Amino acid sequence: MYIREYDIIVDLGCGTGYLADQLSQSVKHKRIVGVDDRSATPLPSVQYLVQDLSQSWDSLSPVLKALESKVSLIVSNFAIQFISDKNRLMHVVSKLLAKNGEFVANYNRAPDVMSLLTSEQIKQYNIQLQTKSELQQLDEIQTACSGNGLNVTKVDVSLLKSRVNEYSIKGRLKSMAIL
């Protein structure tokens, strides 16, 4: 059985750093970098960067930009749905990934609340909320990927008990699969 060794692993939206720490213990690697917009409790096996991922590439920290085209694995566990500009985020992912790099992510979609209401309810309560359908949200992430040279190779959509769909995204070679 072939076990791949990753040169650099980046955990986008690492939060507490739990996933990055688990990866450091279970995946062969040379370096792991956790990136989040707030600091995490430091773990000796992970380098942490405080960085707002909604920023453009040119606005990112020099430390993160130094990883351009060097990252062999990018992971994100339920964080990318919080970045409103998916195109900008996928541009950053594309810039970070090395040739043959992979991007794997779990992605929750927001429920389409408006689809649950009748037109009478919307009118009666003067509701002006706009939500995207499941297909619109999936299309948004796929379009952002393809627009930045990431090929979506697999999509897996599962309905969780909370009625919120979860998307897992996996990419290779400047490509992307939504599992």
Automatic annotation (TrEMBL):
Instruction: Report the CDD domains cross-referenced here.
Output: AdoMet_MTases (cd02440)
Classification via SUPFAM superfamilies: S-adenosyl-L-methionine-dependent methyltransferases
The chain's coiled-coil residues are none
Any GO molecular function: trans-aconitate 2-methyltransferase activity
A Pfam family reported for this protein in Swiss-Prot or TrEMBL = Methyltransf_23
- UniProt-recorded name of the protein: Methyltransferase domain-containing protein
